[in-house]
């Protein structure tokens, strides 16, 4: 927080316009960055503004994708917007992030992604070469994810009213019979797994944005996860919940699941796969890796009798080679996530208010 000197007569008055609050006020009458962070403030915005405004027209399932039945087919439908800054970062760009993000939202319902829409909001003055680079990344990522870009839109806003390129994508996928994956199915006894190293994407974007160096380049983990999900489903295991821990990281995702299912989650902190570069960067920046965003990882809640074969299937896939069991679902402390520390104590892992690192997707 910054302010001008103040005191007795003749000294300058406090300049309120220069103040910056690191934790946005929860009762703010205007939108603040915390409302877009995927934490408690995002949830409050949806619950107290959008859902009442939409009224009976809204289906309040509130998952990463909606599951609808049309003509006898079960479909997953999702939409997402991407405003990451900078547009290009180590390991990816806003283009492949847009495709992979929507593909992953569909995959978290157990769907096979099929088609995507793409809408570009371009700022006047943005170089055509930069737009072409991002568009090519979209096409390359779509081919890699085996989805077709079937429709789209382009809009231009005045110079100074955007950040070069914003992208909205929407996607549709097909869900096979017998697949029922949703947060409400989490239950005590479930084993909690994560598919690999956490916190990588957020640190990659922050290091590029702020020009930070950590002795090694941290590259984003952005990747399409539907192949990994297919391998997990092929085991025949009873997979209850899948989520990709993007904004708000592992902590926000686990809190959301615990809250929806009204169960507790108990983590073993030393089992969380945090790469050394991410741990060092978080230590330098004062961040907790559990709250840092990911773009190519998933969390799974699996029936205990199926946990070992699901873990083996994950580790056999390139995107799950570092998968770990990180905790269990419990009946105690419903709606709360608790971590057992390396020293033998416990700590509550709260839902973040906003986002430690804004504009990361």
UniProtKB/TrEMBL annotation:
Residues 64-175 form the PurM-like N-terminal domain. Residues 187-333 form the PurM-like C-terminal domain. InterPro entries: HypE, PurM-like_C_dom, PurM-like_C_sf, PurM-like_N, PurM-like_N_sf. It holds the Pfam family AIRS_C. CDD domains: HypE. Coiled coil: none annotated. Belongs to the HypE family. This is Hydrogenase expression/formation protein HypE. It comes from Nocardia aurea. The gene is hypE.
